[in-house]
């Protein structure tokens, strides 16, 4: 069994049964830091959810979620209402709302109370306790005031866990200390250890099976544990409801982290303190002022009001509040009575007995000091009347406190009070088992006088004892005692024999006890009333607290009167002086004192007695009147005898009385003044209270702001580092053009000093050439909100900056100044300039040389031609792609061009190709040379080149080739002619001289003919006349020659033949005719017929008739014939003695 | 009806000479006659040559490429059709092309090499030519 329970998680599947535990965190001033510390330890995987209730300023947006979110691995959000709580999340209360939880869903609530009286932590804890029971935990962190202490009680009552921050670690220890003061806290830890404590506690509860087993072990050990408690504390819990007991013992086991109940049994046996703690734990119940206020209202209506109305001035109203705990219930009832008395203007003697078994609680009750927060529970009208503010707390006023007597008393063990008018026992019976309830109700019946009232808690009833009580107001649990005969409860659960005596009361309790237990039994009562000497219990001032015995002989009023009177004033003559003296002495010396041989004088007679004063530890004094003699009846003559002495005493007494009267008046005045002061003080206190809560909220805001400021200073540091390190000249101006910030690099433009921040930019000198334009532009940007770009330079124009002016916008988008960023572009500009010059030179070169530039992007096959290239190509619509270019060239060149382009692109071969352009008219074909090279770029490569028109070069080349061919032909022809001529001449020659002569002269003729063609006038055309004159040129001056005829052109084909022919004729004439040996005249004339034929006559007229030997046809004549044939003509010769006429008829070559 | 004159197998062989340069023409005439052939021409134009062929069928021909009225190819074509061999005699550089067009023909560069002309003419006149 022990082993089983020790295993924390026995089965794997059990984890599914883990129940979510909700941790409520209450914090106020100084809470942010504590929450942060606490949650930074949180494990997002744990089955815990956190709800943070922080006192927040309702008018201020909360940054808590934002700040916390950065410190914890959990996801943090501010509650908007309606969230279902899930593990691993932190939910933050929003400002201006309360928070409650119902079925695990968070709800926002409006505050009912004014600021200063709100208790959001208590409210939430209470709802959490009701909703989650023992799976609720509450943590109270730093803060002032006492919010959370009441909520903590509720958590505890429902079995939840209560943890408080160690006040020493808290910035403000008000809340933690107050919470600790309830005595209900399970753990007191530093913030970072809180989560650990929660986890440890719930390690037991999380798994249901373990939980059940633990509960079973507790059940098994229950009677033993009760026994231990009874032995030690003297209170027997065995009759209490088992489920409650088991639950609360189980809690202790969890808190102590023990494995099972038997361990706990050992622990409790060995540790008396634990016994005390358990005792208190078992007694926890939640109580508040006017809890279930409507029930209290009903009680007032139903019972209190009639009781007050019907009571006589001297009657006593007796009220008993058993199980009063910390006293709230008793005070509530007392206040209602007091209020009713006030309203009905009656004076009633009201005695309220409030009892409990827990000394510690009674002490709290007697102090009657409660946290400020509880004030809200008291109806508003009563607050001012019956409470006094005390430094963050409040106390019930003395008037109410005096109505109540608190005492230790057990309903089931001690004899009951009797003759009770109203018995209020709320939320006590629910803790009792059936048997105990069956005991309690008859006791109540006995105590309450017939017609008296029983007031129970909302879930309690009289059950089967309806013959003892009947309901007066069932819904408010108000019952009336039936008139049955009371049965004295003889079966009080006394101590078993052999048991220990009840535990000795701690000394501190004794001094607080203000009352002797008179009601321990009727025997004692009888002894006191009949046999004990008359005794008074008085305060050190002499006020009578209680009296017993036959005091008529010693005092002037009847005993039992509870109105406070001083013993001195009512003591009979003879006793009065002694009483005054002995009280004074005893209160000074606190020693038992006896005053002997006194005689008390009454109207009936005299009595000799001793007076004993016994100082009690609590400061009261017991006065015992011990009779010494028989009572002597008074005789009449005694009156006279005593008169003189009386009159002296009388006059003293009169004086005393009047003095006392004056004193009384003075005291009353003082009291009034005091009351006024008190009420002012109260007002001050309540103002203080509000101020304090405002202060708390402010310090929360302050914490948040501090976090924000920290972040801001980091951002600011970043910014100033940026400003210091950047090389970018930058200046920020505000809306008034005042300098807001600048970088160090700005010095080159504006020589700012640190003190220039705030100075208008207009006042600062600048190195800029046109600073006024910059300022103007800045103004414009600030008014229009548009970004401006401009270029500025310094005075010497050495440096140039590109200036960007951007509007400075606030977070809401409003314009609030401008930012000027300068980027230096001097070197870029210089580069640009150099580039431009370079480009211009290049362009000029290209233009002059008529070069066009082209660029090919091989990937896209796109081609870019500059204007020159376009002009050279002369393509309509331009050339944009490679295909355009290929289409532009002649079909024959396309393949070659395409290949060449491919080569330059792929193989990096330089491109150099000449193409003919397509589309030119025949004979006007234009040629273009394209040169290019591959250029490797960073990402892509391109082909870059030039192209130019080479049409003229091509044409010239063609002509040159043609000329060369022609020249070659002619030279070869000339060689043929000469070789032919040599051969022909060789055939006919008789001797070498003639041969050489013939050949040389003919070669000369040919040369002349050739020379003539070369000399041909550029504009004109060689004519027949030219040929004739050329042939006659060697014979210039040898005879008269007339050369005459129309102009007949001589083509080059005809020229050789004509030249040879004329040469032969001229040679002949020189050898035999007028150009030689014979005198005479030569006429060379020609005519052209209509059909174009030319008739040329070579007429030699001799001065004397000569005989010209016409040898057989020689080489010369053959040549003439041949030449004529070549000229498509014929030659006739008419030889006479006086003249020789040779005629050539030929057809001149029409074309050249 | 074949109007073309038949060659006389018994008489001297006839060689058509086309040359527009008078001196060269005369030289050729003397040379070819000297080889023992009868010369038709020489003619300086295509027109004259074509007329001459119509009149008398030559057995062979010596042709200058460029004549006064144009290139000699119409004459050459006609001779080729008639199955007559020929010697091209020219100053141009493209004899090979010409010879390729006229199978069996020969080329002799100007100035003339007499023995070569003689051999070619002899070959052309004795060897049978495809018609």
UniProtKB/TrEMBL annotation, chain B:
Keyword Endoplasmic reticulum: no
Domain Response regulatory per the UniProt entry, residue ranges: 14-125
KW Phosphoprotein (keyword) present: yes
Name the UniProt record assigns to this protein: Response regulator receiver domain-containing protein
Source organism superkingdom: Bacteria
Residues the record lists as 4-aspartylphosphate modifications: 64
Biological process according to GO: phosphorelay signal transduction system
InterPro entries hit by this protein: CheY-like_superfamily, Sig_transdc_resp-reg_receiver
UniProtKB keywords: Phosphoprotein
């Amino acid at each position: 069994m022990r082993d089983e329970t020790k295993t924390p998680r026995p089965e794997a599947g059990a984890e599914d049964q883990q129940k979510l535990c909700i941790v409520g965190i209450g914090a106020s001033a100084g809470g942010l830091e504590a929450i942060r510390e606490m949650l930074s330890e949180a494990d997002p995987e744990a089955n815990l959810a956190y709800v943070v209730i922080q006192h927040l300023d309702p008018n201020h947006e909360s940054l808590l979620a934002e700040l916390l979110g950065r410190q914890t691995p959990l996801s943090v959000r501010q509650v908007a209402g309606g969230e279902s709580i899930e593990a691993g999340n932190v939910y933050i209360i929003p400002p201006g709302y309360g928070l409650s939880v119902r079925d695990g869903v968070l709800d926002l609530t409006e505050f009912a109370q004014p600021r200063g009286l709100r208790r959001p932590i208590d409210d939430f804890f209470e709802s959490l306790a009701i909703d989650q029971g023992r799976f609720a935990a509450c943590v109270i962190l730093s803060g002032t005031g006492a919010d959370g202490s009441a909520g903590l009680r509720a958590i505890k009552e429902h079995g939840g866990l209560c943890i408080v921050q160690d006040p020493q670690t808290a910035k403000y220890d008000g809340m933690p200390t107050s919470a600790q003061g309830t005595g209900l806290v399970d753990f007191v830890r530093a913030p970072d250890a809180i989560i650990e404590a929660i986890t440890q506690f719930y390690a037991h509860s999380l798994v249901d099976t373990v939980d059940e087993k633990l509960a079973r072990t507790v059940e098994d050990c229950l009677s033993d544990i009760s026994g231990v408690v009874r032995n030690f504390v003297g209170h027997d819990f065995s009759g209490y409801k088992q489920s409650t007991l088991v639950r609360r013992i189980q809690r202790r086991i969890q808190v102590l982290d023990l494995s099972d109940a038997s361990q706990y049994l050992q622990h409790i046996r060995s540790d008396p303190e634990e016994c005390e703690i358990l005792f208190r734990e078992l007694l926890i119940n939640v109580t508040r002022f006017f809890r279930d206020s409507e029930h209290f209202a009903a009680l007032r209506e139903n019972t209190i009001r009639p009781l007050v109305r019907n009571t006589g001035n001297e009657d006593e109203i007796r009220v008993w509040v058993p199980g009063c705990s910390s006293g709230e219930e008793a005070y509530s009832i007392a206040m209602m009575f007091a209020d009713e008395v006030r309203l009905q203007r009656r004076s009633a003697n009201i005695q309220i007995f409030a009892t409990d078994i827990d000394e510690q609680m009674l002490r709290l009750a007697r102090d009657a000091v409660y946290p400020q927060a509880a004030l809200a529970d008291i109806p508003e009208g009563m607050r001012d009347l019956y409470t006094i503010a005390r430094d963050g707390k409040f106390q019930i006023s003395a008037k109410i406190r005096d109505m109540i007597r608190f005492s230790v008393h057990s309903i089931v063990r001690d004899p009951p009070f009797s003759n009770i008018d109203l018995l209020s026992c709320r939320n006590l019976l629910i803790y009792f088992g059936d048997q105990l309830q069956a005991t309690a109700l008859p006791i109540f019946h006995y105590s309450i006088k017939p017609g008296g009232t029983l007031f129970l808690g909302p879930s309690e009833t009289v059950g089967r004892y309806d013959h003892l009580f009947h309901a007066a107001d069932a819904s408010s649990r108000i019952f009336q005692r039936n008139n049955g005969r009371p049965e004295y409860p003889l079966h009080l659960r006394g101590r078993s024999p052999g048991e220990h005596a009840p535990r000795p009361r701690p000394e501190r309790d004794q001094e607080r006890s203000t009352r002797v237990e008179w009601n321990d039994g009727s025997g004692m009562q009888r002894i006191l009333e009949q046999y004990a000497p008359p005794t008074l219990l008085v305060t050190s001032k002499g006020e009578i607290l209680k009296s017993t015995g036959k005091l008529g002989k010693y005092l002037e009023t009847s005993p039992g009167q509870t109105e406070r009177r001083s013993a001195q004033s009512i003591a009979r003559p003879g006793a009065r002086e002694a009483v005054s003296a002995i009280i004074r002495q005893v209160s000074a010396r606190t020693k038992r004192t006896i005053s002997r041989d006194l005689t008390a004088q009454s109207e009936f007679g005299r009595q000799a007695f001793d007076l004993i004063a016994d100082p009690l530890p609590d400061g009261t004094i017991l006065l015992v009147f011990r009779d010494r003699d028989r009572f002597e009846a008074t005789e009449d003559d005694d009156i006279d005898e005593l008169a003189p002495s009386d009159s002296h005493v009388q006059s003293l007494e009169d004086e005393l009385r009047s003095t006392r009267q004056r004193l009384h008046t003075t005291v009353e005045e003082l009291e009034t003044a005091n009351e006024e002061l008190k009420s002012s003080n109260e007002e001050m206190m309540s103002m203080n209270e509000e101020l304090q809560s405002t202060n708390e909220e402010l310090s929360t805001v302050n914490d948040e702001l501090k976090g924000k400021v920290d972040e801001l200073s980091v951002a600011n540091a970043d910014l100033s580092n940026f400003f210091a390190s950047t090389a970018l000249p930058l200046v920020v101006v505000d809306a008034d053009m005042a300098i807001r910030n600048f970088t160090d690099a700005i010095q080159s433009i504006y020589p700012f000093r640190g003190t220039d921040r705030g100075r208008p930019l207009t006042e600062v000198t600048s190195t800029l050439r046109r600073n006024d334009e910059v300022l103007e532009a800045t103004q414009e940007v600030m008014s229009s909100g548009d970004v401006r770009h401009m270029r500025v330079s310094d005075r010497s124009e050495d440096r140039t900056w590109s200036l960007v002016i951007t509007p400075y916008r606030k977070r809401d988008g409003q314009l609030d100044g401008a930012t000027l960023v300068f980027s230096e572009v001097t070197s870029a500009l210089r580069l640009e300039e150099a580039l431009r010059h370079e480009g211009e030179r290049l362009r000029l070169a290209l233009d002059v040389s008529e070069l066009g530039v082209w660029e090919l992007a091989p990937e896209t096959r796109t081609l870019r031609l500059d204007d020159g290239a376009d002009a050279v190509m002369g393509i309509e619509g331009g050339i944009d792609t490679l295909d355009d270019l290929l289409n532009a060239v002649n079909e024959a060149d396309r393949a070659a061009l395409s290949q060449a382009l491919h080569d330059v692109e792929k193989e990096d071969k330089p491109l150099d190709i000449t193409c003919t352009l397509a589309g030119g008219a025949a004979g006007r074909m234009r040629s273009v040379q394209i040169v290019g090279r591959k250029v490797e770029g960073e990402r892509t490569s391109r082909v870059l080149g030039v192209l130019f028109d080479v049409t003229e070069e091509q044409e010239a080349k063609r002509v040159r080739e043609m000329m060369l061919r022609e020249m070659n032909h002619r030279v070869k022809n000339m060689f043929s002619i000469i070789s032919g001529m040599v051969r022909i001449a060789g055939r006919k020659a008789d001797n070498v001289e003639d041969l050489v002569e013939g050949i040389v002269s003919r070669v000369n003729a040919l040369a002349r003919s050739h020379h003539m063609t070369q000399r041909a006038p550029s504009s004109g055309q060689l004519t027949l006349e030219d040929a004739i004159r050329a042939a006659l040129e060697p014979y210039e001056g040898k005879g008269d020659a007339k050369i005459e005829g129309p102009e007949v052109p001589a083509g080059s084909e005809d020229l050789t033949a004509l030249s040879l022919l004329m040469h032969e004729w001229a040679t002949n004439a020189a050898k035999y005719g007028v150009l030689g040996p014979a005198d005479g005249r030569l006429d060379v004339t020609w005519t052209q017929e209509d059909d174009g034929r030319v008739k040329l006559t070579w007429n030699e007229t001799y001065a004397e008739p000569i005989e010209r030997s016409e040898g057989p046809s020689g080489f010369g004549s053959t040549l003439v014939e041949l030449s004529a044939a070549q000229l498509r003509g014929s030659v006739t010769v008419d030889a006479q003695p006086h003249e020789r006429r040779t005629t050539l008829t030929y057809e001149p070559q029409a074309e050249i | 009806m074949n109007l073309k004159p038949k060659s006389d197998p018994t008489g001297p062989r006839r060689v058509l000479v086309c040359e527009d340069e008078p001196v060269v023409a005369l030289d050729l005439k003397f040379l070819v006659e000297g080889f023992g052939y009868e010369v038709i021409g020489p003619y300086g134009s295509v027109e004259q040559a074509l007329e001459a062929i119509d009149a008398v069928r030559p057995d062979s021909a010596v042709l200058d490429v460029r004549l006064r009225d144009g290139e000699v190819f119409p004459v050459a074509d006609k001779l080729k059709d008639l199955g007559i061999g020929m010697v091209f005699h020219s100053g141009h550089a493209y004899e090979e092309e010409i010879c390729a067009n006229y199978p069996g023909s020969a080329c002799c560069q100007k100035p003339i090499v007499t023995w070569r002309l003689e051999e070619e003419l002899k070959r052309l006149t004795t060897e049978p030519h495809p018609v």
